From TrEMBL, chain A:
This is Acyl carrier protein. It holds the Pfam family PP-binding. Residues 2-80 form the Carrier domain. SMART domains: PKS_PP. Keywords: Phosphopantetheine, Phosphoprotein. The keyword Transferase does not apply. GO terms for biological process: antibiotic biosynthetic process. It comes from Streptomyces doudnae. InterPro entries: ACP-like_sf, PKS_PP-bd, PP-bd_ACP, Ppantetheine_attach_site. The keyword DNA-binding does not apply. SUPFAM superfamilies: ACP-like.
UniProtKB/TrEMBL annotation, chain B:
This is Beta-ketoacyl-[acyl-carrier-protein] synthase family protein. Belongs to the thiolase-like superfamily. Beta-ketoacyl-ACP synthases family. Pfam families: ketoacyl-synt, Ketoacyl-synt_C. PANTHER family: 3-OXOACYL-[ACYL-CARRIER-PROTEIN] SYNTHASE, MITOCHONDRIAL, POLYKETIDE SYNTHASE-RELATED. The lineage of its organism: Bacteria, Bacillati, Actinomycetota, Actinomycetes, Kitasatosporales.
Amino acid sequence: MPSREDLALLVRTTVSDVLGTDAEDVHERTSLVDDFGIDSLELMEIGARLERALKLRIAVEDLTSARDVGEAIDLLRARTAEPV
Amino acid sequence: MTGRHRSGGHRVAVTGIGVKSPAGNDLEEAYTTVLKAEGTAASLAGWLVEQDHPVHFGCLVPPFDLEAYLTRRETRQIDRTTQLLLCAAADAVADARLPADLPPERVGAQIGTGIGGLPSMEAVTLSHGDRPREMPVHTVPRTMANSPACRLAMRYGYQGACTTYSSACASGTTAVGEAARKIRYGELDVAVAGGVDSAVTTVVVGAFARMRAMSTRNAEPELASRPFDVDRDGFVMGEGAAVLVLERMDSARTRGARVYGEIAGYADTCDASHIVAPREDGETAARCMRQAIADAGLRPADIGHVNAHGTSTLLNDRAEARAVDRCFAGQPPPLTAVKGVTGHLIGGSGALEAALALLCAERGLVPPIANLRASAESDLVDLVVAAPRTVPTAPVLSNSFGFGGQNACLVLVPEG
């Protein structure tokens, strides 16, 4: 199971790559909707990349329900802790 | 003084031009390059050469600062075709200085592309064909044929008719002509119209080469595109985009816009005879030229010069020469063919050539045809060779002919 720190780096790197920005621009309190106006396809691309990296099924609701990046990281951490 | 078009509709002005082409990344640069009549085709060593490809060269758009036009986020979601189109459109829109208060529903994107998203579908097939579950989520929006037009509409909020025209190598001319019709008959007040393709790829170039439509002059790429020359051996694949801002002539005058000229005539016909070869006698192409000239309310004798489709394939050049001969009844005006310099931009060519033809007509200088030494068609057409030909400022006929037997002709009237 990846540490929260590793997971946070992975999420921030993936998000910034898809949005064409730098990882430093994506923080725990960043809201992808309010701060970046992210669209549904970009969100799905982020989900697809995280699924591949974590070898994990990620429900679309997990991505849309998180209010900010920090909450998404916590949600993913909980999922990775679940028995497969 | 502005009056109406002879059809009773609105006259259509060209008020902005943007170009991303092998001959240059703005109109003046492209004009200077075609006047010099030096081929821009170059070897693609490190790529087509290493693949044992039959064709080793092409005409690419010189590098420019993409980040001055597009954010990294936009760039990630679109392919090179759409990138080139958006950059040329940004230049055209800036050049036109359109008023900020245009009703968005009266402005439309009108774009032609012959090959569309096939190059990016080719790329994703090669990178992910055996791993479909890992394909990028943006594959469909990136490869749709209407991506360039719709991204253009999205970028500026144009809510009027957004149309993608596909008439193979005539697509850019079709788009400009149909856009002008939409303004003429009152469907739009402003159209951002043009053409684009970026298909210098292994599969697309290889596929054209299989028909022996492409030059394989691999040792001398800069001499490969030679329209109407006896030593031609096929066309040279290029890439690029050109965009024209078209608007009602009366509003352009009222707002004091810089008017490059008028899209005065347009026509399109179809050979309906062979899926790729043009009709040998050129009759349907000649009819297209005559109809475009008549649409402009002119006679063949009023045309100051012809911008030929001139691909540097034997079948096109010979049929086109016959068609010009038929249209002008043995009294042809000077004729040029800029593909000797630019290569064939497929969907981009018609729009690029309309822009260049208008500028050449305005300045009264017809570029010489690159690499033309001796022609078997010189008894049919008045080929401009060796040096630019000075002509009076007069209307110009711009031809585009595409696979499928598609013929499209524009008549452009310069200012002055």
